[in-house]
Specification:
A five-stranded antiparallel β-sheet has the order 1-2-3-5-4, with helices on one face. Strands 6-8-9 form a three-stranded antiparallel β-sheet, with helices on one face. It has 345 residues and is an alpha+beta fold. Helix 8 packs across helix 11 and helix 11 packs antiparallel against helix 12. The chain has two domains: 106 residues, 2-Layer Sandwich (Phosphorylase Kinase, domain 1), CATH 3.30.200; 223 residues, Aminoglycoside phosphotransferase (APH), C-terminal lobe (Aminoglycoside 3'-phosphotransferase, Chain: A, domain 2), CATH 3.90.1200. Strand 2 and strand 3 form a beta hairpin. Helices cover 43% and strands 13% of the residues. Bound molecules: 2-acetamido-2-deoxy-1-O-phosphono-alpha-D-glucopyranose and magnesium ion. 2-acetamido-2-deoxy-1-O-phosphono-alpha-D-glucopyranose (GN1) binds next to loops.
């Protein structure tokens, strides 16, 4: 670890290193130097992101764009946009001895990544944070971004992968989850709905974050206001429906995605309303009617998609998401199905 850290922070003593966050893809630490300055050190999961250089190119070009935008508006971007450090060799990635790739950014102080909040006011602020992301990235040439994970939110393709996993039944678990499989299969037409609107041009292609869970927008510890959107790994061209939908998936849920007591997972319409209000407000009028009118379709499709993704991984024998115990992905799939069933059409 010392060697990796030194690639980014060559001077001074390093005081501490501790695990950070609850992401289920990358491995993350917080680092404190002798002056009390803190950094986020992260190992990129190259099983999921085979081209970490493309991930960093996307991240840096979008964050630079946002910083420039804020400066033009006379706003300070210190805490509003993640800032990545270059290594002593130049570049934003350091390759460790095991071949893994690491990156380092400044930690944003006085703000928290909430996994769960109950106060609708905080949801309003979270909505504003993600809406501000849409506003600030408006005009960025979305198609210049690398598709680091092709078809990431192509729900139609996700459905095909799900059917393939059922068919293969690699871990011999399909019989046990027949009810869940049937439930998702019966709703197949939902899988193609957004894809069709994108293909026909009804929905514009925008820069999208694609992982807009509640904990990816930091809220100020004192005011509760949104400070910064983090985790830009999956920044790609997409539709705003994906980002709104994925945010509702955690923001308007009464429990964590892996809550084992299923009846604790419910859709909280008040929180959904608050998030939507903040989101649309901060987008500042750039959304077209087809986007505003279909935001809730985004929520239904993304929660449905996430249920399928978790169940697919369960059927494949837990090869994608980090799991802590054998039934972890199944619990996740079940909470998503329950949440989905409560989101109004
Ligand atoms: C993964 O690891 P994290 O929390 O950033 C996943 C998201 C899922 C989420 C579910 C690249 O994100 O799409 O919604 O888990 N990211 C990737 O917890 O697959
Ligand atoms: Mg992520």
């Amino acid at each position: 670890m010392e060697k990796i850290l030194r690639a980014f922070l060559p001077h001074g003593d390093l005081a501490s290193l501790a695990p950070l966050g609850e992401g289920i893809i990358n491995t993350t630490f917080s680092v404190r130097d002798e002056d009390g300055k803190r950094y986020v050190l992260q190992k990129v999961n190259t099983n999921v992101f085979p081209d970490p250089f493309a991930v960093m190119d996307n991240t840096v070009s979008v964050t630079d764009w946002m910083r420039k935008r804020l400066a033009e508006e006379g706003k300070c971007s210190d805490r509003c946009v993640p800032l990545f450090l270059q290594t002593t060799e130049g570049g934003y990635l350091y390759q460790g001895e095991d071949g893994g790739y690491w990156r380092c950014s400044k930690l944003i102080e006085g703000a928290t990544a909430h996994v769960h909040v109950t106060d609708p006011k905080l949801l309003y602020h979270a909505g504003k944070g993600y809406g501000e992301f849409v506003r600030l990235t408006d005009g960025f040439p979305a198609s210049s971004l690398a598709e680091v994970l092709p078809n990431f939110h192509n729900t139609k393709k996700r459905f095909e992968a799900f059917l393939e996993a059922v068919e293969k039944d690699a871990a011999g678990r399909a019989r046990e989850v027949d009810r869940e499989i049937q439930y998702l299969k019966e709703r197949e037409e939902l899988a193609g709905s957004i894809v069709a609107m994108l293909e026909s041009g009804k929905l514009p292609l925008r820069v999208t974050h694609n992982d807009t869970k509640l904990s990816n927008v930091l809220l100020d510890d004192e005011t509760g206001e949104a400070v910064c959107v983090i985790d830009l790994d999956t920044v790609m061209p997409g539709t705003v429906l994906y980002d709104f939908g994925d945010a509702i998936r955690s923001g308007a849920a009464s429990a964590a995605e892996d809550e084992p007591k299923l009846d604790r997972m419910n859709f909280v319409s008040e929180n959904c309303k608050a998030f939507k209000e903040g989101f649309v407000e901060a987008c500042g009028g750039i959304l077209i009617p087809a986007e505003v009118d279909n935001l809730m379709l985004g929520a239904r499709v993304i929660v449905y998609e996430q249920a399928m993704r978790f169940l697919t991984d369960y059927l494949n024998g837990d090869t994608y998401y980090k799991t802590l115990f054998p039934g972890h992905n199944l619990i996740r799939a079940r909470t998503q199905i329950r949440l989905f069933s409560q989101i109004p059409e």
